[in-house]
Design goal:
Layout lengths: L8 E3 L11 E5 L16 H10 L4 E3 L5 H11 L4 E4 L4 E5 L4 E5 L4 H15 L2 E4 L5 H8 L3 H8 L7 E5 L2 H10 L3 E4 L4 E4 L1 H14 L4 E6 L5 H6 L2 E4 L9 H6 L4 E2 L4 H22 L1
Parallel strand pairs: 1-6, 2-3, 2-11, 11-12, 12-13
Antiparallel strand pairs: 4-5, 5-6, 7-8, 9-10
Helix pairs in contact: 1-10, 3-6
Length: about 280
């Protein structure tokens, strides 16, 4: 993958309709599309090429920042749209750069929310973007340009629970109109409407009749619950995230972990959809 390089960006207020796509894949990135340790696509790269050849767009839905996800999209040839920072914003490809539409409050506002949650819950929350570089690298598994990009938050503030009770933290967040969702590495402060509304908007813009959702952590629950065919990629231990499975009990389980499982699930689904069309 190329080193992180800022891509031309314009802030946009409203969406613009695009070409119709009968099927679209909405997918998380860390530990699914990319390996959770190396952040490389492996088998998913070839699967993405086959989807592109069939006219099926792949839409990343990630807790990553724009500066993290843009080089990944460039490397994989993903040129439709992205939902990033846990639904905090949408990026759409214009042909010569990305246009960004904010969907949630800025990170500065979320820092105030986290401070209020600490006061109400009695917990001590360590905000990722404020961690020393060595600790941020240890917890995130990132280094170099990717690490730097991950700490520059615009629409979200991942955190870890240093002391306190998570249930009380979640109740305090709920009292402020937020939810706390567990990702593969961090807890994420989210508004229920942001990621779901971003998904719904992109689905309408793509004129998507069949939405496939792929995720692996509890933070992906809202996305998977809204798709027609939800797929869970197992974690490193080979089992699906129990919190995610409880939230989306009808989800299919990919047959392997990471990009291998992502690619296998996509190939299996493509085969079944092809067979269904042939029988129709």
């Amino acid at each position: 993958m190329e080193p992180n390089r800022r891509t031309a960006v314009r802030i946009r207020p409203k969406a613009r309709p695009s070409a119709a796509h009968r099927i679209a894949v909405f997918t998380s990135v860390d530990g699914t599309l990319l390996d959770a340790r190396t952040f490389v696509p492996g088998p998913s790269r070839a699967a993405i090429r086959r989807l592109a050849g069939a006219g099926v767009p792949v839409i990343p839905v990630s807790v990553m920042t724009f500066d993290e996800i843009a080089p990944i999209a460039r490397d994989l040839g993903l040129r439709h749209a992205m939902i990033f920072e846990a639904g905090g914003a949408i990026a759409r490809w214009t042909g010569d750069g990305w246009e960004i539409e904010p969907c949630g409050p800025p990170a500065e506002t979320l820092l105030d929310v986290i401070s209020t949650i600490e006061q109400r819950s009695g917990a001590n929350l360590l905000v990722y973007s404020a961690l020393p570089e060595t600790e941020a690298a240890r917890l995130s598994g990132r280094s170099g340009a990717m690490l730097q990009a991950s700490t520059h938050r615009s629409f979200s503030e991942p955190f870890v629970l240093e002391t306190g009770d998570l249930a009380r933290v979640r109740r305090a967040a709920a009292s402020l109109g937020f939810s706390v969702r567990r990702g593969r590495r961090f807890l994420h402060l989210c508004r229920t409407c942001d990621e779901g509304e971003a998904f719904t908007r992109l689905r309408q813009e793509l004129q998507c009749d069949l939405a496939i959702g792929i995720g692996g952590a509890a933070v992906d629950a809202e996305l998977l619950a809204r798709t027609d065919i939800p797929i869970i990629v197992p974690g490193p231990d080979g089992t699906p995230d129990p919190e995610l499975l409880a939230a989306v009990p009808d989800a299919r389980i990919a047959p392997a972990v990471g990009p291998e499982g992502w690619a296998a699930a996509v190939e299996e689904l493509s085969s079944s959809l092809t067979a269904t069309r042939n029988l129709a």
